[in-house]
């Protein structure tokens, strides 16, 4: 079997463009992969056009390791976010092809289920708080999440906070967290996102004030470039620290593990080179007693691929999910899209990734000039209209 070529399809919304890549073969099997770029969709598609000629066309889709290494190192220049995201789309599509050809789900090819007593994967909701930034509105929105069956949710309550957060904004942010905790009760998981906003001193102060609400993690408390700053925060709080969505190469996680500053890593399968790279990273994380909870702001193909990893990974904690609340209509572009029931995904038994791209439905959502600016007023509404 050989790859004959690829095709790309962009599904657009006001705040995100999702790029789907189909890999076609001379035996009629087609696999699909996906990533979500922030402001770099055209660059990704441009890279894939070159990579199709230089590396992809004519390759054996079963030889995933070989194809990944050629795409990553064959152009000599260091692979960054765009290249690793392109590799991820093609790589997961090859796993999809391999699973279909062999008649088994991808998780079966990666070692089988890590927990044979349970075929469920816990989900947490994101994108649900597209409301006015008041305790009343956040309380009502959070109630909607738990009424839908979710047992975990995440929010960034800090508005446009950057480095510091003044007293008024601190009080407002804490009131939102308090309202959400009250709405979901003491048993549901509350996950707090900082989006790399703060200085270590501010993050430490906020962590101390957030402890009464028992969050399961504090995510990206400081910008991701300085691991010593992250370690400073980790040393001064009892809250678990989560980070890693903006790291695009598993090798770059080495210093993070060595720093002992992280409890949960959050790599994005669509940016880290695909399923195989994530599997290797998960195994490394396990040796450091670190859990994995992938960043997942894509659509249903990326969710399905992340679930394949979840099924065979013993240190897998939970999977993010946007598509029940933000742009829920885009789920129709993928057939057999994973669904959350009573707070959990069910691990698919279908061959490959277990999903198919509906290209006609995808055409209903053309690429947009998607806008997502975390330092703009009302960014949390995710309508693409937020302005600084």
Outline the structure in words.
- By secondary structure, the protein is of the alpha/beta class.
- The chain is 36% helix and 16% strand.
- It has helices at residues 41-56, 64-73, 81-102, 106-109, 135-147, 167-184, 200-210, 227-235, 253-259, 275-287, 300-311, 359-362, and strands at residues 3-12, 17-25, 30-37, 120-125, 152-155, 189-193, 217-219, 241-243, 264-265, 291-292, 319-321, 334-335, 344-346, 356-357.
- The strands form four sheets. The chain has a six-stranded parallel β-sheet with strand order 5-6-7-8-9-10, covered by helices on one side.
- A hairpin with a 4-residue loop joins strand 2 and strand 3 (30-37).
- The longest helix has 22 residues, at 81-102.
